[in-house]
């Protein structure tokens, strides 16, 4: 019986080639969608992290914390604001623990550039002040020398002479009872001031950043 030689074909058929191309196209499409989605997510995260609201919240916390840590815990004042007049926020009772709210707070501290002799003066309760307040929706801080302080005379209009004003954030909404608060015991503040405000996006009212933080004053002078 004679042998029959069978030819073995090599390579892909047209159908196999089309199927392979289709699978490759689907894989490339999936990879492209993942890359685009990752890029958009990264852009959103980057945008949120570097938005004006986030930058404003970081500026508030940095300035508030830095000044508070350098301030005199025996010589700071919370104020209630009425028009352009500031009145010290007083507890309703002196017999118990109470949370007192205010619209502004004045910290008094010792400047790093102050002469050493002034730091040794037992009557000196601070050489400079920082006054945090909200004006026209902006969180601001006034820096000046003490005395006379932020509100000369204890109440009335704030000092506007020889000060440096920094805008920390815009579109700031205070907590309903006041942007600042502290705890008093028997009418005496405990040297820890808290801030509670919300930063809003004027282009998107649904977006907001809440800033709730506290600063603990460590210095006491005179003792």
Description:
The protein has 223 residues and is an alpha+beta fold. The chain has one domain. Helix content is 26%, strand content 37%. It is built from three helices and twelve strands; from the N terminus they run ααββββαββββββββ. A seven-stranded antiparallel beta sheet has the order 7-2-1-4-5-6-8, with helices on one face. The longest helix is centred in the first third of the chain and has 36 residues. The protein is elongated. The termini are far apart.
Quick recap of the structure?
The chain has 223 residues and is α+β, with helices and mostly antiparallel strands.
Would you tell me the overall average pLDDT? Answer: 86
How many structurally independent domains? 1
Structural class by secondary-structure content: alpha+beta
N-C termini distance: 121 Å
Query: Helix count?
Result: 3
Tell me the overall shape: elongated
The helix content, as a percent range, equals 25-40%
Order of helices and strands: HHEEEEHEEEEEEEE
Determine Rg (CA atoms, Å).
31 Å
Let me know the number of strands.
12
Strand order of the largest sheet: 7-2-1-4-5-6-8
Residue windows where pLDDT falls under 50 for at least 5 positions: none
What fraction of residues sit in β-strands?
35-45%
Instruction: Please summarize the sheet with the most strands.
Output: 7 strands, antiparallel
């Amino acid at each position: 019986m004679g042998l029959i030689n069978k030819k073995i074909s090599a390579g892909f058929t047209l159908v196999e080639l089309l199927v392979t191309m289709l699978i490759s196209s689907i894989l490339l499409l999936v990879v492209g969608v993942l890359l685009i989605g990752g890029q958009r997510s990264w852009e959103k995260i980057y945008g949120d992290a570097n938005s004006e609201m986030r930058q404003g919240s970081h500026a508030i916390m940095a300035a508030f914390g830095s000044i508070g840590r350098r301030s005199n815990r025996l010589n700071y004042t919370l104020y209630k604001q009425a028009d352009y007049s500031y009145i010290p926020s007083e507890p309703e009772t002196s017999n118990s623990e109470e949370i007192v709210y205010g619209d502004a707070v004045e910290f008094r501290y010792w400047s790093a550039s102050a002469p050493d002799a002034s730091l040794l003066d037992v009557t000196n309760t601070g050489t400079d002040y920082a006054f945090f307040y909200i004006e026209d929706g902006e969180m601001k801080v006034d820096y000046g020398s003490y005395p006379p302080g932020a509100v000369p005379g204890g109440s009335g209009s704030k000092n506007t002479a020889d000060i440096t004003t920094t805008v920390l954030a815009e579109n700031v909404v205070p907590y309903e009872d006041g942007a600042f608060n502290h705890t008093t015991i028997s009418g005496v503040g405990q040297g820890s001031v808290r801030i509670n405000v919300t930063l809003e996006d004027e282009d998107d009212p649904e977006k907001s950043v809440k800033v709730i933080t506290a600063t603990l004053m460590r210095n006491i002078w005179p003792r």
